[in-house]
Amino acid sequence: MPAGEPMDAPTHWRGMIKHLGPGLIITACIVGSGELIATPKVGAEYGFSLLWFIIAGCMIKVLVQVELGRYAISKGMT
Hints:
The protein is mainly alpha-helical. It has a domain at 23-74. The protein is 71% helix and 0% strand. It is built from 3 helices and no strands. Helix 1 (13-29) packs across helix 3. It is elongated, with a radius of gyration of 17 Å. The relative contact order is 0.10.
């Protein structure tokens, strides 16, 4: 494949997971003090009733980080 030619998007789940890897690593590295303080506080005050909120927040964070990474790469801001 010549350089500059776009690759096809992955269609199999293994290919998709392979492309999510860098975004997941960056997301795991960007845990701030807000998460370290707010998550246990929510768990202590509300128990499992807001567990869905924490899980949804983690999923949204992953998607945002992946998209920001794509934007930076596409604009040559790496």
